[in-house]
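Bumping with the actual sequence this time:
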Amino acid sequence: MTATKQQFFKPTKVSAEAKSAQTNSIARGIVEQEAAAREKKTEKLRALRMAREAATPAPLPVLKRK
């Protein structure tokens, strides 16, 4: 008994609905990963901005001449 292509790789047709579900699942996963990365980056940048603002002294008020 020899191994044949048909023995290991049975050509089964995948329904359009199954393909659509798989594509949808993968796309949603990618979008979720990008959203998580974006949130992480936003938090990092916000923390850096807050630290920079805390380190810089407040400007002195300018007195207007009358």
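The tokens above came from a reply further down the thread. The chain has a mean pLDDT of 88.
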